[in-house]
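Second attempt. The first submission of Flavodoxin had a stray character pasted in from the spreadsheet, which I only caught after the job came back as garbage. Lesson logged: always re-copy from the clean sequence file. Corrected sequence (220 aa) follows.
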Amino acid sequence: MKRFAALILSVLCLVTALSFAGCASPDTDPVQTAAQQSPDSSSDETADDAQADDNDTQTEGGTLVVYFSATGNTEQAAQYIAEITGGDLFELEPAEPYTSADLNYGNDDSRVSREHDDESLRDVELVSATVENWDSYDTVFVGYPIWWGIAAWPVDTFIKANDFTGKTVVPFCTSASSGVGESAELLADMAGTGNWLDGTRFRSNVSEDDIQEWIDGLDL
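This time the job returned cleanly.
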């Protein structure tokens, strides 16, 4: 009888021990889950901070150098400007590029001569007339060659397609002999918005030193 009672007591003790073990098990899971989630939460916060930094960078004022170049002279000047200012380059490319024959001013039947004689032909389609992240630029240089005393008309398409409100616009041009004339004023009138500075003309073989001296005097 005593052996039977002892056996019953042993069984009861075993059942009681198992019950406590079963109750303790769920308490450990939330602790482990919280520990496992902690790195994820930290990563989310880091990603949010990084995104905020990116947004701050995009809203900072930048410099853009926009140019149309028929023979490479204006392109060279634009590249110097971008290097000196740390600005971004944006080339205005006609959807139908000008060939050497198109640019033969001495031929009355050349493309550029016909466009000069008939203003309705000057609406030159560009590969792209708008710039990505346009709002991130506070200063915009606009470069062009002089054609018949005015800005080469492919630039007109870009000017008409963009809002220059809140931007400082710096016109520059290249030519073998012609001056800047009223080219910059005409572009400013066409734009209707923006703070347009006086235009500056550079010779066809402009040097980087020339550009540096000019930029130093702009007080941008």
